[in-house]
Amino acid sequence: MFSTLEHTAESVISGGPQDDSVISSDAYFQHAKMNKHALRIVNVVTNSEAHSLGFESWFDFIIGINGHEIPTSYDEFGQLKPNYQYLVQEIANCHGRSVTFEVWSAKGGAVKYIELPVEESNDNTMSDVPLDGNKSDLQSREGLYKHFGLQVQWSPLITSTFVYHVLEIHPNSPAQHAGLVEYSDYIIGSQDGLLATGGEDLLGRVIDSKRGQAFILYVYNSDYNVVRPVTITPADNWGGVGLLGCNVGYGLLHRIPSVTAGVEPGSVLFDNQYVGSPAPQVQQISLPSPPPPHQSLKPSTSNDDPAHPFTQQIPHASRKKKTAAELL
Fold first, then answer.
1. 247: pLDDT strictly greater than 80
2. DSSP secondary-structure letter at 272?
3. Would the CA dihedral through 117, 120, 124, 128 be positive or negative?
4. Per-residue H/E/C for 23-90
5. N- to C-terminal Cα distance for the chain?
6. DSSP H helical segments within the chain, as ranges?
7. How many angstroms separate the Cα of 53 from the Cα of each of 65, 66, 224?
């Protein structure tokens, strides 16, 4: 199932004007060591070892392990895939020591190195992972990353650029009522994975299809380094132009920036109860990746309930305006 979904996602993503051919000439990817694919972190289990060491779902891509590149080969569809059996063996060889992951981050295109201890253990989270090649890659990857509290997916790096930068927000617009913050908010996903394939005009088409309907956008704020769900209702009768009443930017000039020093990473709970309801309190758990096409977003759960970080109003006058790419 997972391999089929990955094949579908890559078929949809590749070959367009935003395909991975731009990576070699884009400074945003200069620290990715020419990798066009990587193991994307799609979920980090709360309170796990990976969570405590700073792995971030959606934003983080594993591009190397213990100083080596991720080993790959081509499958029957002609798609490049990682060798999960090799990765299992590499980690198994580190029992009693630490394994070092080289991680490329979508936040500014920076690279970080994270050491995870591989404890000697008698439980079945690692020892039962087959190394003889007789079992599927799916079983290998599940056992491999369950031990650390991670879920990964082989993904093109170019998917990290599928974001929409919120620019000027017009007064009394649906965007303003929903609580979007101009110039520091980046739309990185939506309910049901509707933005997973990217594209400059995709957000506009999704917004138009949701005219008059409340739905959820997943929004990263670069000032607070948090992700939150925003429930918004596109409308054309609010007294201005566009269904959202805000300008958005997409592409080279609108990448997610590096994190300001001293700001801790945060994330948010996804829950079906948010649909059609006021925006909920932000909760500090891992953010699942937007799923591939045709895959429904599965909600996470948590009992954590810290205070909402967006209690401070960001002054409009403090923002340097940029050219609007599109009015929604």
1. yes
2. G
3. positive
4. HHHCHHHCCCCCCCEEEEEEEECCCCHHHHCCCCCCCEEEEEECCEECCEEECCCCCEEECHHHHHHH
5. 36
6. 2-13, 49-52, 84-92, 137-146, 174-178, 202-209
7. 16, 17, 19
- pLDDT digit string (tens) for 121-155? 534 333 333 334 444 555 445 555 666 888 889 99
CB 157 within 8 Å of CB 104: yes
Domains of the chain (ranges; CATH) run 2-158 (2.30.42.10), 162-327 (2.30.42.10)
**Is residue 309 within 8 Å of residue 226, measured between CB atoms?**
yes
Pick the closest to residue 161 from 111, 214, 200, 116 (CA basis). 200
Which of 210, 182, 175, 159 has its CA nearest to residue 22?
A: 159
> What type of residue is 115?
E
What pTM value is reported for the model? 0.72
Task: State both tokens at 284.
Answer: 């500090």
When pLDDT is cut at 50, 70 and 90, the band that residue 262 belongs to is low
Confidence of residue 84 (pLDDT cuts 50, 70, 90): confident
Q: What angle do helix axes 2-13 and 137-146 make, rounded to 10 degrees?
A: 100
Euclidean distance between CA atoms 141 and 130, whole angstroms: 10
Q: Please, how many CA atoms are within 13 Å of residue 326, restricted to the half-sphere of its CB?
A: 18
